[in-house]
Amino acid sequence: MKFDTPATTNPIDQLKVIGKPTDRIxxxxxxxxxxxxxxxxxxxxxxxxxxxxxxxxxxxxxxASIDLSAAKAAPGVLGIxxxxxxGKLGKGEFNTAKLLGGPAxxxxxxxxxxxxxxxxxxxxxxxxxxxxxxxRSEGKFDLAAVKDTGVKPKPGLGGASDxxxxxxxxxxxxxxxxxxxxxxxxxxSHAMIEPHASIAKWEGDKLTVWxxxxxxxxxxxxxxxxxGIPKExxxxxxxxxxxxxxxxxxxxxDALLAALGARAVRxxxxxxxxxPLVTNNTTHRPATIQRIRFGATKDGxxxxxxxxxxxxDLPEGAPETAVGQTxxxxxxxxxMTAMRLAVLDLPEGNAMRAPGEAPGLMALEIAMDEMAEKLxxxxxxxxxxxxxxxxxxKPERPFSQRNLTECLRTGAxxxxxxxxxxxxxxxxxxxxxxxxxVAAAFRNSLSMKxxxxxxxxxxxxxxxxxxxxxxxxxxxxxxxxxxxxxMGVPLAQVVxxxxxxxxxVSCGSGGQWGAHNSTGGVFAACxxxxxxxxxxxxxxxxxxxxxxxxxxxxxxxxxxxxxxxPAGLVAEDAIEYGDLDKKSQLSTFGAHFVEVGVxxxxxxxxxxxxxxxxxxxxxxxxxxxxxxxxxxxxxxxGAALMEELAVDKRAGFFVNHDLAGxxxxxxxxxxxxxxxxxxxxxxxxxxxxxxxxxxxGICGVAAAxxxxxxxxxxxxxxxYPITLxxxxxxxxxxx
Length: 735
Ligand code: MOS
Known about the structure:
By secondary structure, the protein is α+β, with helices and mostly antiparallel strands. Among the domains are: 11-35 and 448-576, 2-Layer Sandwich (Aldehyde Oxidoreductase, domain 4); 353-446 and 583-727, Aldehyde oxidase/xanthine dehydrogenase, molybdopterin binding domain (Aldehyde Oxidoreductase, domain 4), CATH 3.30.365. The strands form 7 sheets. The protein has a 7-stranded mixed β-sheet with strand order 4-6-2-13-10-11-12. The protein has a 5-stranded mixed β-sheet with strand order 1-25-19-20-21. A 5-stranded mixed β-sheet has the order 8-16-15-14-9, sandwiched between helices. Dioxothiomolybdenum(VI) ion binds at residues 214, 244-246, 249, 351-353, 355, 510-511.
């Protein structure tokens, strides 16, 4: 099905199932432990042995020698895979050859060996006996030190490296009101609960891998290319995923090494990355340095907007696209953005929840708060004053839908913004200095091809199959809702099967593109199935009504099971997109409000309440969408207050590589959260009229916290996370 004209009324608009707050259909499996994660497929693979990954102990250099003799002789050891004996590895789309390092070492904890043994303990014990001699070479580990060596990155998902409209320099110099400040955001880890894990099993030249991966088709392709086998010979199965956040978008060492290990020892092999390897072996969100400049008229109209961002990555890497939202968020005739990418020999930087916008808004939305104060304007008024309905870089291009102002107004009303004293450091609650902050939220909505297969059996059961993944987001449920709505059956009549490369290729989970695209594919397949049902009965598909488990037309009504017959009916289709997303800009919008208390004596920040207002098209399942947003708000609170991978700038690794040292928020950090969805539909997005929301939820949160801290204390911190040491010495005297 080609989606190339705006959606008209369709069966989804009935909203009998779609749009209703719906419990996860996979919830009982998760709460009873019957949902099996990658490492837990004991029934399918009862005879798996254990692989333990050894990570490089240096950040850059070479392996001079590697002595496996003691490890090979250790109890239970079946084999050891290294770059020396693994055979030649191909290079996938995502630089997968480096998933097994040696002799050259590219980064700390790059995998250099897999020790395979009968038991987990034997594998771990034998790994200690592997003797590696390294030749260390100089590496670059400090972004601030290498920033000025940064070059223009190749255009990628985040667009061109530089944009320029009008005359930024001239307009900035001439502006009566100017602002120029630099912000920093740190490296962050996905820190998902389930580590990267895989079980690999060979049958002849056919490979099956149970794994934890967001993008099944990408990883099938990359695993096949890396191993040098046809992709038809690779099957990936990833039905449940304990968190991804972008860290499981790509093939990682666990899956590749499990496959190599299983080939070497001729047994199925299971591999889970231990927690430190999640930090230094896999990907992370790269640190940024961001400079923001504004020029404005005295009454607060932006005339010049400049945003530059510096980040680093391994050679051939990509930038953190932190300037993306600044190209689209506020009006202003003269504008420039630029990204510069320096080489860093730290582990690979890559996508983490709302890559680009999340760290970009951490800077931009503090800058907006600072500029509003400079102008003597309320920060909400200042944002509304500079709102736009068209792409500010290409004014002929409208947004498909943009309700940012309504998000800000609705939130202000609900949050009680009117009562706010605009002067900072004025409100006390005992030793707590109280402040409130606001930030705009922005995240793009991407159109991606997505396919599904739908079966109807003679009991009237509808089964959906697609390689779409559910990373905790609720994909199972919105897909079931879509099929139920389309086929006119209750939710309990729908079975959803996900995450298997034998199913049609979906959009996968990433970049908040999963919801509208994967359900769009199910919509397409169900449309075809409806046609097949009608055709079989000799009914007119256009006027046939699918409701209450029956199909009805021309005075006839037939139960769906009877229509399907003993052989059943099956239909497969994909949603594919034309150029609607070029004619108009598809984005999602929101506003975050935060109240904090900062301890006047210790500088400790406690968040007291949070509110998000989101405008993201039709909300398919308000219950799971709310969960997505409150999870994202929690992640934003972590980004504001605690999350930071501490770089050892001499040895070149992230020191706090466990969940004791890498702090993320816990329940006690997050007392009250509220989410409001604006009631809207976006007919330009897909037949579902929905857009993503899971990443919108994090965008702007950290800046809202930062702005609230400033409002509470009068102390402005421009370097995240805002830990108490950065506030001490800047707080007013304790009363
Ligand atoms: Mo998301 S960072 O694209 O999984």
